[in-house]
Design brief:
alpha+beta; SH3 type barrels; 2 domains; six-stranded antiparallel beta sheet; two-stranded antiparallel ribbon; elongated
Length: 246
């Protein structure tokens, strides 16, 4: 017949598990190692006398147990004075962790902020930043628009004062301007010249004299265009905030 023994002493607790009888003269723990080891660490006396009242409110059971234990434990005085507070959740998810509503909302806001600052290559392709109908890849087709733009930009320069000129040029409509890329993080774009036919929040779309459509990111590119005797340099970082429909 199997036997089990439980021994409890105030201030000290020991437990012996289910122990089948071994062979004669050989303790079972040595024969098969099937017994539990004795708990030798002392248990605080106050903890042994705690009477717990479980709350019927779902979600508060563990907190109530912890509250009762801390009132009688070593840190009871600090806990009751309010200098130490503890909270234990009802459960812990060890895998397949699902973020709480607040965490998901925070992550969504961070993603939204990143998206506003910069579009990825995948996003550019998704929204068609690199798409432009092949029949419009013709430099000569847009020359009349360039002539209209020259009249527009000269009128703008004439009407604004010297102090407002820089800001006016940053906000000027560049559709029809011939832009030269003097610097870009994409080496192959440096030196590209084209007539600007489409602007998005982060790119310029240029039709080159050899009838190709090139998309140039504004950040961190540098552009130059001419207006009569003026040679104007534009830093793409300063143009990111401009909002134009694709």
């Amino acid at each position: 017949m199997p036997s089990s023994t439980k021994y409890l002493k105030k201030g000290h607790s020991s437990f012996f598990g289910h122990t089948p009888r071994g062979t004669a003269g050989i303790p079972e723990v040595e024969a098969n190692g099937l017994t539990y080891s004795q708990i030798c660490l002392p248990v605080h006396e106050n903890l042994l006398d705690v009477s717990l009242e479980l709350s019927s409110t779902r979600g508060n059971v563990v907190d109530d147990i912890l509250h009762e234990l801390l009132q009688s434990g070593d840190a009871a005085q600090k806990y009751m004075q309010g200098s130490r507070s503890m909270k234990i959740d009802n459960w812990i998810l060890l895998d397949n962790v699902v973020q709480g509503r607040g965490a998901r909302s925070s992550a969504s806001k961070n993603l939204s902020k990143r998206s506003k600052r910069r579009m990825s290559l995948k996003q550019h392709r998704k929204y068609g930043s690199f798409d432009f109908p092949q029949e419009f890849h013709k430099f000569e087709m847009f020359k009349p628009m360039h002539n209209m733009w020259k009249d527009y930009i000269m009128q703008l320069i004439k009407n604004v004062g010297t102090n407002q000129l820089a800001q006016s040029l940053l906000s000027a409509d560049l559709h029809g301007a011939i832009l030269l890329v003097t610097d870009s993080k994409i080496i192959s774009l440096v030196g590209v010249t084209g007539l600007m036919v489409r602007e998005t929040a982060e790119t310029f779309g240029l039709v080159t004299p050899d009838n190709k459509f090139r998309v140039v990111p504004k950040r961190p590119s540098v552009f130059i265009f001419r207006a009569d005797c003026w040679k104007i340099t534009l830093y793409g970082d300063k143009l990111i905030s401009r909002s134009f429909a694709t």
